[in-house]
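Quick question, first post here. What does this chain look like in 3D?
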Amino acid sequence: MILADKIIEERKRNGWSQEELAEKLDVSRQSVSKWEGAQSIPDINRIIQMADLFGVSTDYLLKENEVRSEDKYELSESVEKDRKTRKVSMEEASEFIKLMEGQASVLARGVSLCILSPVILIVFGGFAEKGIFGISEKFAGTVGVIILLIMVAMAVYNFISCGNRAKKFEFLEKEEIDTEYGVDGMVKERMDAFEPSFNRALVLGVVLCILSCLPLLAVSMITEKAYIITAMVGVLLLIVATAVNLFVRVGVVKGSYDKLLQEGDYTTEKKKNAPLIGRIAGIYWLIAVAIYLSISFLTNKWETSWIIWPVAGVLWPVTIAIVKIIIKEKE
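> Answer (accepted):
Ran it through. Tokens below.
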């Protein structure tokens, strides 16, 4: 094995992410990534540091045919017992990335459908107040709710179908993995090529979110007519849906790379808490749906009850942050 492969192997043997190894060596994660991708070579001082950290000789790291001396590295009994790694081949990694790239647009479309689902109800409700186009309140409510439910059903279908197709790769989110030779290099290469697109999508999405309220604010300053204001609410949701679509598209692809490299939200440590967070997520969003439907049907004010979703979205990361703090305190 070459130096790059040995660094990957020893880092994973210790259960460290690239960020954790970089912190121990006082270098950037990008430096570690380049070493492991054979794009650059660490200086001699870093090699000596790594030899000490890994419990191996510098000869082992530097010489391709040097065999690792196992007696220089002894995993504690508890670590060895808990270590359950699953091997990921090049074929599996390529199949997973291809699947996620294909599903990114489907998942993004599903999220956009959820955001856009109340638009017709809101806009028709505004038109019904003034009798524009002959739309009555009963017609607006009936058609609006039907379209809302159809769009949500289409979104749920997208989510379930994507989940079923990706089921064989669920272990990437929950289990510690070990990749075969060449997999990390391939994934890093694709991630580096994708990074400009990822950054552009994030910037454009953030800009759209910031600008989404401008049409509504501008119209509110000019007129107080309800049907015009509700129409601008529809425009606001359309812009937000476009921004979120961008976030989801690139996020799904970036997430596939992070899962294979065990970086970001998929480090070994974070995977341990994934089952608990998953259960909390399920309960949280079921409660959000129940609150939204209860308030909407009881008050029949669908044109304003949509605000529950952005509020729930803002509170979600706060909830997860609190859960993580509690988990950390109990450890």
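Residues 71-83 have pLDDT under 50 and may be disordered.
The beta strands are 86-88, 177-179.
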